[in-house]
Amino acid sequence: MQILVRYHEVGLKGKNRPAFVNQLVGNLKRALSGVPGSRVRADQGQLVVTAPDDSSHDQIRMAIATTYGIARYAFAYEVDRDVEGLKVGVKDFIDRQQRSFSTFRIASNRADKAFRLTSPELNAELGSFVQSFNGARVDIKNADFTIYVDVRPRATYVYSDPEPGPGGLPVGSSGRVAALLSGGIDSPVAAARMMRRGCPVTFIHFHSFPLVDASSREKAIRLVQLLDQYQSKSRLFLVPFADVQREIIAAVPTAYRVVTYRRFMVRIAGEIAKREGAISLVSGESVGQVASQTMENIATIDASSTVPILRPLIGMDKVEIIDQARTIGTYDVSIERDEDCCSLFVPAHPVLRSTPAFAERAEDSLDIEALVHKALDDVEIVGATREAVGVF
Ligand code: ATP
Ligand code: MG
Question: Do residues 188 and 284 share a domain?
Fold first, then answer.
C-alpha cells in the first residue's frame, strides 16, 4: 500500500525547500512509528509512504492528521507504467472500489516527461478504455468518480478521493515559542496554531497548588500529552504561583489583581522562554472574550513583557475556537472541571480599562525580581510521559 502525500507552502520556500522537505519527512516518519514496516521518501514535489498491506488505514490517517505541512494525501496503488499495464491497473482499481458511477473522468498528471503520452492523450486513451467495459459516461466537470493517474519517474500510481491533510508547515521549520497553557479551551488551540506554522512549542503552566487542588496541573499534563502528538519531546514547565499571588493580593488594588497576575506570568514565562531558546510567548487571548481581555488590559500585560507575546486567537470567536479544539482533540480534556490559579481571589469587578502606568504604580511595593526568581527556583519540568526532564 502506498500513500501519496502533497505539501503546498513547503514547496514555495525556494532554496529552503530541501530543509523543509527533510523536516516533513522526519516528522511523518516519527508520526508513523506505530505502523511497523512503514517507510517515507521524498519524490519530486511529494512524499510517498509505503506501508504493509495489512496496516491500519485509521492509524495512518491519524499520523497524517497530526503532521503539519501535509496539504492532502491519497491511498494509491502502484501500477505498471506502460499504457497497457496502466489499463490493467485502472481496471483492477475500479473493480476493487466496488462503486457504482454513471459519470467519471480520468485526471492524469505526467511528472515524468519522458512518458510517451501527454496527460490529455493519456486521459483520452484511458477514458475510452474504461467506457469499453463500463457503461459510464465521461464528464469532465461533474464526474461521480474521478480516477487520478500519476506517472512519476520511479513509479506510476492510480488513486481516487484525495483527502485534506492538516495543512500548515512542518513543526521545526520555524522558531521555537513558549506557550502559556492554562487548563482552558483556548490556550491549547493557540499553541497548536503556532505548531501549524512550524514552531516547536515549549509549554508553561502556572498553578496555585497547594492553595487549590492539583487538577489544573493534571489537566495541563494531559493537554501536553495530546499536543505532543503534533511535535515530539514536549517540555512542560510547571510554575508554582501561589506565593506570587499572595504578595499581589496584599499589595495591589483588587480590581487590578487579574491583570497583575498576568503581568507576573509573562515576566516569569519570558525568563523561561529565553532559557529555552524560544523567541516569543504565545497566549490564548482573544479580544473581549472575558473582562481580562479588553484591548486596554492586553496592552497593560504587554507592557510588562520583555519578549513579544503572540496571540493567534486574537480575532476569533469562541465558537470557532471550540471547533478547532475539537479538531485538534483537546476539547474534552479542556472542559473538565479544574481549579485554576486565576480563579483565586478574583474580584467581582475587575478593571476593564487598565493602564500600564497604574499597573506599575500598583506594583511599586513589590520586589518584582525576587518574586520572579523565587517562582523560577521552584519550577518543575516534565515531559509528555510525566517524567522529569531537567531542572531549571
Ligand atoms: P483559556 O481557555 O486558554 O484558559 P481563557 O479564555 O480562560 O483562556 P484567561 O483565563 O483570561 O482566558 O487566560 C488568558 C490566557 O492567559 C490563556 O489563554 C493562557 O494563555 C494564559 N493563562 C491563563 N491562565 C494560565 C495558567 N494558569 N497558566 C498558564 N497560562 C495561563
Ligand atoms: Mg482560562
Answer: yes
- For residue 272, the CA-to-ligand 2 centroid distance in Å is 21
Looking at the fold, whether 368 and 291 belong to one and the same domain comes out as: yes
| 134 plus 192 within the same structural domain | no
Q: Give residue 338's domain range.
A: 177-391
Q: What is the CATH number of the domain that holds 340?
A: 3.40.50.620
Kindly state if the Cβ of 182 falls inside 6 Å of ligand 1.
yes
Query: First CA to last CA across the chain, in angstroms?
Result: 46
Q: How many CA atoms lie within 13 A of 32 on its CB side?
A: 24
Answer yes or no: do 253 and 382 share one domain. yes
- pTM, two decimal places: 0.94
Quick one: 208 and 354 in the same domain?
A: yes
| Averaged pLDDT, 7-28 | 82
Give the distance between the most distant pair of CA atoms in the chain.
Answer: 87
Ligand 1 in reach of 185 Cβ (< 6 A) = yes
**Residue 298 Cβ contacting ligand 1 at under 6 Å:** no
CA of 357 to the centre of ligand 1 (A): 23
Sign of CA dihedral 8, 13, 15, 16: negative
Query: What pLDDT band is residue 172 in, cutting at 50, 70 and 90?
Result: very high
Count: domains in the chain: 2
pLDDT digits (tens, 9 = 90+) for 110-142: 988 888 899 999 999 999 999 999 889 999 999
Give yes or no for residue 173 CB within 6 A of ligand 1. no
User: Helix (H, G, I), strand (E, B), or coil: what is residue 193?
Assistant: helix
Q: Residue 27, Cβ neighbours under 10 Å: how many?
A: 24
Q: Whose CA is nearest to atom 20 of ligand 1?
A: 283
